[in-house]
Amino acid sequence: MSMSGARGGRERLVVIGGDAAGMSAASQARRLRGPGELEIVAFERGHFSSYSACGIPYWVGGDVAERDRLIARTPEEHRARDIDLRMRTEVTEIDVARGRVRARDVDSGDESWTSYDKLVIATGARPIRPDMPGADAPGVHGVQTLDDGQALLDSLAHTRGRRAVVVGAGYIGVEMAEALINRGFEVTVVNRGKEPMSTLDPDMGRLVHRALEGLGITMVNNAEVTKVHTGEDGRVRAVATEDAEFPADLVVLGIGVRPQTALAEAAGLPLGTHRGLLTDLAMRVRGHENIWAGGDCVEVLNLVSGQEQYVPLGTHANKHGQVIGTNAGGGYATFPGVVGTAVSKVCDLEIARTGLREKDAHRVGLRYETVTIESTTRAGYYPGASPMTVKMLAERRTGRLLGVQIVGREGAAKRVDIAAVALTAQMTVEQMTALDLGYAPPFSPVWDPVLVAARKATAKVRPR
Amino acid sequence: MSMSGARGGRERLVVIGGDAAGMSAASQARRLRGPGELEIVAFERGHFSSYSACGIPYWVGGDVAERDRLIARTPEEHRARDIDLRMRTEVTEIDVARGRVRARDVDSGDESWTSYDKLVIATGARPIRPDMPGADAPGVHGVQTLDDGQALLDSLAHTRGRRAVVVGAGYIGVEMAEALINRGFEVTVVNRGKEPMSTLDPDMGRLVHRALEGLGITMVNNAEVTKVHTGEDGRVRAVATEDAEFPADLVVLGIGVRPQTALAEAAGLPLGTHRGLLTDLAMRVRGHENIWAGGDCVEVLNLVSGQEQYVPLGTHANKHGQVIGTNAGGGYATFPGVVGTAVSKVCDLEIARTGLREKDAHRVGLRYETVTIESTTRAGYYPGASPMTVKMLAERRTGRLLGVQIVGREGAAKRVDIAAVALTAQMTVEQMTALDLGYAPPFSPVWDPVLVAARKATAKVRPR
User: Fold this and answer.
1) Which is one Pfam family of this protein (chains A, B) (predicted)?
2) Which of A308, B144, B181, B372 gives the lowest tally of CB atoms within 10 Å of its CB?
């Protein structure tokens, strides 16, 4: 007796994880197949569904007034669309051979099996917690979930002192630094790398470093946190590195996340070198016809390096969900890969990158030239024209664009999209010099800064 | 005796026109070839060289404090780089057979011949002046040159009344409407078309129409100006159409420009259907090895329609100059064509377009689908998120992107660059749905509005 047979001919789609990738997949599958054809059951172990984790720093910083603004769709809204979303229910086992998952009610502890015809794994990421004394002390916060954000906000409200230490200087680290400045804290950022924003080359990271200092943030590079000191009340008092100690009334951990794939691994599903699930172009788990995976628990192909990479970003999770839902719903869609685009801001400083950094190019065996140019976001004579720096990498000989990094003020970051599309189309920097980009004095100098970089890169890879 | 022989082995490059295209060409040629190898003579009939005509509305409106901010390089600066720039000197004849040009000193009337080995024609555009009574009355202004801008500013200072009529609702028209509002005028825009911004489809132009009205601008569509009425002092008093009369203390003409090619035509050089010079990919005038042309006097290939088009924009002029100077200086560069990108703003409304409008697609025989979507410039919950509308055209069956139009608030316009690169790369709308664009809440919803449009267009050209 087939399992679907037991459900009166309806297929059952089971989704593990009720956030961006999982619920996008569920919603898209529902759009294509009505409840008479397809039953959809989704399990989420937390309190919230479909929320913008990327928005948490802005909620903590006060730019977003309330938590619920970050929730794109509540469990009730999903249920109203015939998606059986079971909150506070954690999947504890995937039984691939028999096509079923075991789920546990987090509050009652009750467990039961649910069979599936089609399975979507969207278990997301878990934050890296440093393995050191005091890391779990009151006053030390992660910022990955809405619950984390709420705990941090509560802590902000009750903390008397005004000294905050942010551990990590990547996207979350710098966004949290801004949030804490907005909340009136003195902020120190402790960073393991040479410069903040290790997703940039260090020469571009240095520009971010200077700008952070200009905002009154104390930036400590080349420093690994070894211990969190607590006071008599057990609450955080200071953060220690090998060389120094930084008084702290509050500590925010922003040192990244790892794919949450223990469940998948236990089920024998294939993981890559970054411990993320490996999928094919249709986002199916490799070797499995009826299991898909997407979002922060998978690795993605970087189209420039030709290698799998771990890029936990909400924008990819949403695309994955869309592709999975289309395929699981009987349509056809693919996710060809990423080019490594990311944008961020700290106060009015905008930071963007796409493609490969120098060390990425080295690692994958590409020879390249680099250029760095200074320009402005608008025509130099137009009010509000602000400096921006563009670094560009191009392959030697072929002149193919390999990567772009941008640091600048308002209007700088989204220019990286020009390079993101050019990378996707495998353009050379010389082809880019002829791009017909929007020009008017309020929007750009007559040569857009990206074109200025492309011109200079062209001259370097192909003299004259 | 060869002419270059007479110059001691040095070649002579003659440039007609001292603005963007001409002087970019001269500068780039000079970069590649020193004065010992190449003599460069440039003729400019006006008072200024290398200025940003696109900046004039912002100077008139007061955003740019002084005229000289619009001048990228003065005649003296060009001369310091060994470019013999002769101001107030008009070329009156090109003698292709003998390789020489006749130039006249505008002030003295003296004429003389100058021979060339290589010639660059960069004679620019002339504004369309309506052929009607009163068009030359005091108080009626064009805004093409710095001299025009100065005359208009003088007029603003002396005009008692505060009623202005702008004739034409294209880029210049709407930019001048904003400038005059900034100067405290009541502004009426009289427009021949169905809606303002005829570079957009009328349904998108309607959004501009509404926004202009929201700014307090009176918008009169479907109206052709037939007469300018003058008062007893001879100065403009009103503008008349067939049906109505609009009191006016000041009139600004923004009804476009035509290529200035009488000189080239008289010399037997090839003109296209828009009366612009026809060039090859190296920007050489077709059929002429040693004559180049660029800027507002040439037609350019539209890569989407496959046909020549007249697109007088400073950004193209600069690129033409760069390509011409590289080739004339012994290097190699090409200008492959345009995709029809343009951006503009009126107060905080941003307007952008690239590729083909519906009527362009019709005209060149392309069948297409269109979609129009509403989204926001930032994540909906992020402060400053503003509405933006994106219209997208895709070819039937193939799904190839044909065009994008955007109307919205801050951050909307430059998103058109995504589509401009995608058009250049001949992407389908389905390929676009996978583009790895920069996402963070301050910069974009998790699905960039351009991707939302691409998704919807994909569904339309290829159901499921």
Assistant:
1) Pyr_redox_2
2) B372
